[in-house]
Amino acid sequence: MALALTRRDPGRIEAAREQFLSAWARTDRIFEIIPAEEIERQPIVWRHPFIFYVGHLPAFSWNQICGSLLKWKSFNPYFDELFCRGIDPDVDTGECHWHPEVPQAWPNLADTLEYRDRVRGAVLESLETIGRLRSNDLMAQNGRVFQMVLEHEYMHQETLTYMLQQVPLVRKRRSRFMPVYSFQPAPASQTIAIPAGKARLGADISELPFGWDNEFNELVVEVPGFKIDSLPVTNGAFYEFMESGGYEDERCWQCEDWLWKNLEGKKSPTCWFQNDGAWFFRSMFDSFPLERVRSWPVSVSLAEARAYARWSGKRLPTEAEFHRAAYYGPDGREADYPWGNADPGARHGNFDFVCWSPLPVGSRPAGASGWGVLELVGNGWELTDTPFKPFPGFTAYIESYADYSRDFFDGKHFVLKGASWATDANLLRASFRNWYQAHYSYVFAKFRCVS
Fold this sequence. Notes:
With about 450 residues, the chain is an alpha+beta fold. It folds into 3 domains: about 10-170, Four Helix Bundle (Hemerythrin (Met), subunit A); about 190-230 and about 310-445, paralog of FGE (formylglycine-generating enzyme) (Alpha-Beta Complex); about 235-295, no CATH class. Helices cover about 30% and strands about 10% of the residues. It contains 9 helices and 11 strands. It has helices at about 10-30, 50-70, 75-80, 110-130, 145-165, 235-245, 255-265, 300-310, 320-325; strands at about 190-195, 195-200, 220-225, 225-230, 270-275, 280, 285-290, 380-385, 415-420, 435, 445. The strands form 4 sheets. The protein has a 4-stranded mixed sheet with strand order 10-9-8-11. A hairpin with a 2-residue loop joins strand 5 (about 270-275) and strand 6 (about 280). The two termini are about 35 Å apart.
């Protein structure tokens, strides 16, 4: 829901207040999974420990709303700076964009929570104040800054969730919101031919209440015809690749991916492990024999997905092919979502924290695209082999966050589309772009092949 706020619209201000309270409640539910003694745990070496995110979410809110736009005096400038930006090191070299120096000791949890609560109060106070602000800054208009802060919160909820999946089960509190598991067999994947035609990437900035800088400008491209799998690759199918020796067959791998795999000693997807010779899958709160979750989508890095695709005699889709398969159909019309223009709901896909778990692929047939391609949105982000680049006419228009995208136009980050089970429904717009490095293997990301 867009937060188009004015001082004469108390109903929208109240709706915005409820949206912030709802977002914060979900964030708090996620942090409840982490015992206090684990708050400085760093389960992924390429991410800060959990305590950073306790402070980062309010610091971002303060810096963008109260600091940048309203120019309010800070009650904790040190925390504003310390928690202002996270890390995304190159997984091969360790080099990273600018971020504050990592302290010798992180602030304690009590002080960080006090900071969080004061910032939350200030954000709620600002909802009416922004409406009276006279500013030429685009972010001060029509609630854009509030939508940006909310979407930032949603994105980090997912970050926290995939970080939590790497924490041993015995070191987590089981959530009050229990996962909804399903283990039925998956339908057979079909090969769907999609004829040549147009695809629209990005958006016109005038048509969205808010969008991140990399979503603009609109770019219409002609896409050659291609064939795409109707379903993502499952754990069961990927196991066949692994058992056939795919991780040891250099012919399956791009050169840089092969070097990374060997350096990491990688022999299976990140959440798979062996016990007494049998393979298991570690979910957020439980471990299952791999055979039981063979119908779930496999979650791997782009490098591993590339290797599987080459092994199968296919390749990964481009960003443009994803758009053509997802948002168009035989009638040539573009839709807001693969299933049409209806607002996203649970019947359309596994997103918005409804299940807290992957589902068997093909479980939401109502979410099929016009071509009959299933599950393009939900159950896991869709990996593409398109480097993350700006669209023509790109402008880092968010002055207070000018480095949001441009630090990652480095040829090492690649576009992901769609959504996972831990993606908020507000992020499902067609122009939204996610991106990660090819050798980063922790994201809830799935893939399908094309030819």
